[in-house]
Design a protein that fits this description.
transmembrane helix; transmembrane; Amino acid/polyamine transporter I; 414 residues; mainly alpha; cell membrane; membrane
Length: 414
């Protein structure tokens, strides 16, 4: 029996999901999946989340968290390249860490995805209300139809959608930033305002902004025919993400000041620039939410298939049933009154940040000991124990702060 069939059979015996044949992604589609997933509700909320701390503390966290998240994503990338079966994060955790690790990772995926998709439902409703004058619920429904429709079509449709919309977002954002810099009311001195004592709460929203860890296994599935491009796509995608995440709050704060930022930043940004910019900024925001919805929603869907061994995720009726589990609860939560836009991102970032600071390290360690093959690319020096310990301590301290601020012992950030 060929080695591939032996590996496939042993994977099934171990309870791993037998993935459908991979549909190849281009390098640009892979980069766009990273950028599109990251540039979602987070880019719209970090200006408001830093309205007390200011731009410089935000920039500090964008640099630090961006670098550390890239490191943990590369851990996951190496683990996927050592694994012949196409497993999602919860599946990798089960194979290399054990049952408890698998459930912990699956819980992280659930919390982060539901928090994100709830925020997108809320934010899209507000944006379409401001653009079209319709009710927020109707606006969310209009957003929901294309968001869920592409999610149903699968990985290749998501990759193509991310590519075209991400290119459009970069163009729109470039025009808006240039217009902001040329506006006579823009004051760069506003970027120096703020209070560093409020910098810690900003961390957790920034963690959410770099939320593309969840899609690395799905990208690996699309790069199965050219695995050496996976780490390159991650690094280029994360560098592009940093530039875009820094540009939006820089422009909004310099133009409007810290006291005049709405929780969905593009609303106040567009109002300050004029009518054309109001529409452009909010169309950009809708695109950002849409691409991130596809990335995180797609990861959540395939993690459900993986965790509960539901088989081929491209069978139409089965995929539709799981899709309902993914997309309906966030829509209901968005209008339950229990969760605000920024808080949904904040607490999703807290929980998922802690889990994703530890689990990729354990998954990589297990993959190096029990993986199927030696990959052509490895992490090398970024697996140094001192760096790993620093990552864990930083995310753990942030979680402690979040709990203390929720209980009223420490100040909140906005």
């Amino acid at each position: 029996m060929p080695a591939e069939n032996i590996t496939f059979s042993s994977a099934l015996a171990a309870g791993e999901r037998a993935s459908a044949p991979a549909k190849s992604l281009s390098f640009l589609e892979g980069v766009a999946m990273i950028v599109g997933t990251n540039i979602g509700a987070g880019v719209l909320s970090i200006a408001y989340a830093s309205s007390k701390a200011g731009f410089l503390p935000l920039l500090f966290w964008l640099v630090l968290v961006g670098c550390l998240t890239t490191v943990t994503m590369l851990y996951v990338a190496e683990a996927t390249l050592r694994t012949r079966a196409h497993l999602q994060l919860s599946g990798l955790a089960k194979r290399y860490v054990g049952g408890f690790g698998s459930w912990l990772m699956f819980a992280s995926v659930c919390v982060n995805s539901i928090g994100a998709l709830t925020a997108y439902m809320t934010g899209s409703g507000k944006l379409l209300q401001s653009l079209l004058g319709i009710s927020p619920a109707i606006g969310s429904l209009l957003f929901f139809i294309p968001a869920a429709g592409v999610l149903y079509l699968g990985l290749k449709a998501i990759g193509r959608g991310e590519k075209f919309i991400s290119i459009g977002m970069v163009v729109m954002l470039s025009v808006l930033v240039i217009a902001t810099l040329l506006k006579d009311t823009t004051q760069m001195g506003r970027l120096l305002e703020g209070d560093w004592r409020f910098m810690v709460p900003v961390f957790n929203v920034v963690v959410f902004c770099f939320s593309a860890q969840y899609i690395v296994p799905e990208m690996a599935r699309g790069f199965a025919d050219k695995p050496e491009q996976l780490p390159k796509a991650i690094i280029v995608g994360m560098a592009t993400t940093f530039v875009l995440l820094a540009a939006v709050p820089l422009s909004v704060i310099a133009l409007s000041g810290l006291d005049n930022i709405s929780d969905v930043a593009t609303i106040s940004w567009g109002q300050a620039l004029g009518q054309w910019a109001f529409f452009s900024a909010n169309i950009f925001a809708l695109c950002a939410m849409l691409t991130s919805y596809w990335g995180l929603g797609g990861s959540f869907l395939t993690n459900i298939f993986d965790k509960f061994r539901l088989g081929n995720d491209e069978l139409p009726l089965r995929r539709f049933a799981v899709l309902l589990v993914v997309v309906l609860p966030p829509f209901v939560l968005a209008y339950s009154g229990f969760v605000s836009f920024v808080n949904a991102l904040y607490f999703a970032g807290v929980f998922s940040g802690v889990v994703l600071s530890v689990m990729p390290m354990l998954i990589l360690r297990g993959a190096r000991q029990h993986g199927d093959m030696m990959p052509r690319w490895q992490c090398n020096w970024i697996t140094h124990p001192l760096l790993q310990a620093s990552i864990v301590l930083l995310y753990a301290a942030s979680a402690v702060y979040a709990i203390a601020s929720l209980l009223g012992y420490l100040p909140a950030g906005w």
